[in-house]
Amino acid sequence: MKKYVNGELLDMTADEITAREAEEKAWTDGQADRDMAALRMERNKRLADTDFLAMSDQTLSSEMTTYRQALRDITTSATSLDDVTWPEKP
Amino acid sequence: MALSKIQSESVNLADDFAFTGTVSGAGAMEHISTTDVTTPAQFVVFDNLSTAYDTFVFQYEFHPSNDGAQFGIQFLDSSGAAIDDADGYGFYNDFDGTAISSDSTNFIYISGSTIGNDTHEGLRGQLTLLGRNYAVATNAVPPCVIGSGIGHYVANVYSGGIINGGLNSQQIQTIRGIRFFTTAFNIERGKVHLYGIRST
């Protein structure tokens, strides 16, 4: 493994390689968690888009109730933004 | 050419004039180095940043060796070791309208999603490093970066956003450098222009 230090190409030390391999493994192992976090972030954004309809001075339609529940349940059917099928907003 | 000479002579604008003077003094931005990454490398490191500057500007372009990695930075502590603790940094980025943040992480993201390695893909950006000469207990925010970046991501997605991050409260210390890397794989090729701004 190599590294550039102040423009000079150098070999990494054995300790640096060990640490780097551990970092790469941690990154790879965390893929599922990152995917799910991104999915939840997008889900929360879509929920927030309709939050105003759920305020106490509003009456939430049954279609909107179903839509919002489907958003909350999305993490049971999808594992990432790549395999998600979003419910259609009424 | 001295101003008095310009004033005393007519100037033919068709001529070529090379600027050979030196810009100096507080506020002047000086080019320090350009690093060409021509051999794949895990890290691009800038160590022993001169204390003559308190602020540094990094203009970078990186191309990863594989799809699916993000880019990040870490600071080097006063001994030159990368600060790699789980509670090392806090950052707030916003890419494409989506905030990405953490109060406790071991590096600062400088991308918003996984970068692609097709011929046109990669990451470009500019970071300003503030606080190179930070001294502990001086009633000042510890070293941090602010900047922005754009990139071509996996599946031809063009993306851009802002980058803000710095040492968190568990890692209040002086620094002497910074390193760029991908979360996995090599930086296959790239270029980094480094500039410094004198504070005095």
Please provide a written account of the structure:
The complex is a heterodimer of chains A (90) and B (200). Chain A contains 4 helices and 2 strands. Chain A is mainly α and 90 residues long. In chain A, strands 1-2 form a two-stranded antiparallel ribbon. The mean pLDDT of chain B is 87. Chain B is globular, with a radius of gyration of 19 Å. With 200 residues, chain B is mostly beta strands. Chain B has one helix at 3-8; strands spanning 29-37, 43-46, 55-64, 71-77, 89-95, 98-105, 108-109, 122-130, 144-153, 157-167, 175-182, 187-197. Helices cover 3% and strands 48% of the residues of chain B. In chain B, strand 5 and strand 6 (98-105) form a beta hairpin. Chains A and B meet through strand 1, helix 1 and helix 2 of A and strand 1 and strand 2 of B. Strand 1 (2-5) of chain A pairs parallel with strand 2 (43-46) of chain B, so a sheet runs across the interface.
Largest protein interface, residues of each chain: A-B, 18 and 22 residues
Strand content of chain A: 5-15%
- End-to-end separation of chain B: 26 Å
Strand order of the largest sheet of chain B: 1-12-3-8-9-10-5-6
Q: Which of globular, elongated, flat, extended, rod-shaped describes the shape of chain A?
A: elongated
**Unreliable runs of chain B:** none
Gyration radius of chain A, rounded: 22 Å
Report the count of strand segments of chain B. 12
Principal-axes shape call of chain B: globular
Low-confidence stretches of chain A: none
Arithmetic mean of pLDDT of chain A: 91
Encode the helix/strand succession of chain B as letters.
Answer: HEEEEEEEEEEEE
Number of strands of chain A: 2
- Annotation field: number of helices of chain B: 1
Assign the structural class of chain A, choosing from mainly alpha, mainly beta, alpha/beta, alpha+beta, or little secondary structure: mainly alpha
Name the helix and strand elements of chain A from N-terminus to C-terminus, one letter apiece. EEHHHH
The major β-sheet of chain B equals:
8 strands, antiparallel
